[in-house]
């Protein structure tokens, strides 16, 4: 699992590459919570290169979203593949996590909501 | 097909590859691999996280995958304490302020039940066996 950071003005984009299972999701959690604690308030997590997610991965998104509510920040998740979208839909995460089809859309949406 | 993995979360990827290889060999769609992977991952995570009293002991978990009568059967056998991974302890409530009143405990087991069609747990001698079946016929 790799996390690739990219800053576009006020929006911090983290690209995930690999699998997010109960082992690798710890790395992502550390990265995302670290960014929020550092003051990043507009987070986009781009999943174009994310192959897989388990419930451990979903928890990371939820924990991050909750942490961001304290700072009145936003989390947008983008470019989910069909399998991952299925997991989000099945568990109801699609209605509690903001999802966009592309990174560009997610960044634009983050700017609008700030 | 059979694989043995250690009772360590870092071994999950090995189980994932075994499923991917098996499904590809059988010419079944990627969706089937993904769904099996998800169920197996959640089960193995629960076994590794909760099924052993002494987590410094290296133990081995056996995974068998077979296709028969339009169904894939995945069997997971471990020699930890008597433990049914479908009844794993629900996680403690999140101490952070919640954006919703949404519980996340039990999410893994929910996914297993949705991905698989039949689930059976047995304790035989000193082994836990979980048998999961998924219909893949046309």
Explained architecture:
With 114 residues, chain A is α/β, with parallel strands linked by helices. Chain A has 4 helices and 5 strands, in the order E-E-H-E-H-E-H-E-H. In chain A, strands 1-2-3-4-5 form a 5-stranded mixed sheet, with helices on both faces. In chain A, helix 1 runs parallel beside helix 2. The model of chain A has no long low-confidence stretch (mean pLDDT 94). Chain B has 138 residues and is an alpha+beta fold. Chain B has a 5-stranded antiparallel sheet, covered by helices on one side. Classes of the chains: A alpha/beta (114), B alpha+beta (138). At the A-B interface, helix 2 and helix 3 of A face helix 1, helix 2 and helix 3 of B.
Short description:
The complex is a heterodimer of chains A (114) and B (138). Chain A is of the alpha/beta class and 114 residues long. Chain A has helices at residues 25-37, 55-70, 82-90, 103-113; strands spanning 2-8, 11-20, 42-53, 74-78, 98-100.
Summing up helix and strand content along with how strands pair, one would put the structural category of chain A as alpha/beta
Percent range of helical residues of chain B: 25-40%
Biggest interface pair, counts: A-B, 25 and 27 residues
Oligomer: heterodimer
The topology string of helices and strands of chain B comes to EHHEEHEE
Shape of chain A: globular
Poorly predicted ranges of chain B: 92-98
Structural class by secondary-structure content of chain B: alpha+beta
Task: Please state roughly what percent of the residues of chain A sit in beta strands, choosing from under 5%, 5-15%, 15-25%, 25-35%, 35-45% or over 45%.
Answer: 25-35%
Number of strands of chain A: 5
Shape of chain B: globular
């Amino acid at each position: 699992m790799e996390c690739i950071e990219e800053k576009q003005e006020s929006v911090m984009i983290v690209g995930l590459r690999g699998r997010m299972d109960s082992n690798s999701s710890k790395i992502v959690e550390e990265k995302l919570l670290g960014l929020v604690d550092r003051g990043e308030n507009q987070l986009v997590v781009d999943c174009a290169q994310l192959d897989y997610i388990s419930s451990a991965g979903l928890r990371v998104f939820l924990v991050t979203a909750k942490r961001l509510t304290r700072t009145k920040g936003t989390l947008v998740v983008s470019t989910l593949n069909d399998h991952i979208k299925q997991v989000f839909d099945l568990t109801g995460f699609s209605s509690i996590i903001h999802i966009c089809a592309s990174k560009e859309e997610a960044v634009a949406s983050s700017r609008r909501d700030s | 097909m059979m694989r043995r993995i250690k009772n360590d979360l870092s071994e999950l990827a090995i189980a994932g590859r075994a499923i991917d290889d098996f499904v590809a060999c059988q010419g079944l769609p990627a969706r089937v691999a993904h769904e099996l992977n998800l169920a197996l991952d959640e089960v193995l995570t629960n076994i590794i996280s909760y099924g052993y009293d002494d987590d410094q002991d290296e133990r081995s978990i056996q995974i068998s995958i077979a296709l028969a009568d339009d169904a894939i059967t995945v069997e997971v056998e471990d020699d930890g304490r008597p433990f049914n991974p479908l009844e794993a302890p629900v996680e403690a409530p999140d101490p952070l302020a919640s954006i919703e009143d949404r519980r996340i405990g039990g999410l893994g087991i929910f996914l297993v039940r949705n991905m698989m069609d039949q689930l059976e747990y047995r304790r035989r001698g000193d082994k836990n066996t979980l048998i999961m079946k998924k219909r893949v016929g046309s």
